[in-house]
Amino acid sequence: MNWYLEVLKKYAVFSGRARRKEYWFFVLFNIIISIVLAVIDGVTGSFSAEAGMGLLGGIYTLAVLIPGIAVSVRRLHDTERSGWWLLIALVPLIGAIVLLVFMAQDSKPGQNQYGANPKEATA
Questions:
Q1: What is the number of domains present in the chain?
Q2: Does any domain span residue 104?
Q3: What are phi and psi of 112, to 5 degrees?
C-alpha cells in the first residue's frame, strides 16, 4: 500500500525514475480499487453499461489519471526511455504489447540522464 500512496504523493512529478515495484503495485491497487468500485456502482445502480463504468469508478479514474501517467513516465525513464514512448499505446494492440514489455524490463543500472537508480538508492 505504501507504493500506491507514494505514487499519489508524487501526483504530477514527471521527472526522475520509478522502480518496477512502484509501478506494478500502483497498477495492482488500481485494478483492485476499480473492481470494488464497480461492484459498489452495480449494487447502488449507478453503473452505466454504455459508459462501461459507474459514477464512483469514473470519479476514481479521473482522480488517478495524472498520477498514472506520471508514474508511467518515471517508469520509462528508469528503463532509459523518454516519456514520449507512452504515445506508442495509441497504436492498436502492438503499442500496448510494446509498452507492457518496456514496463516489465529491469532498471538500467547506475545513473542515467533521468537521475540515480532508485533500486540502488534503497538497497
A1: 1
A2: yes
A3: -130, -170
Q: Is the pLDDT of residue 103 over 60?
A: yes
User: How do residues 21-77 score in pLDDT, each as one tens digit?
Assistant: 999 999 999 999 999 999 999 999 888 888 888 999 999 999 999 999 999 999 999
Name the residue type at position 39. V
Grid cell 509498452 is found at 99
Question: What was the pLDDT predicted at 76?
Answer: 95
116 occurs within a structural domain: no
Cα 101 to the center of its chain, rounded Å: 14
Residue 28: which domain range?
2-111
CA–CA separation, 121 and 78 (whole Å): 13
Chain center to CA of 66: 9
If you search the block for the grid coordinates 464512483, which residue do you land on?
56
Look at residue 121 and tell me if it is in a domain.
no
Q: Is residue 24 part of a domain?
A: yes
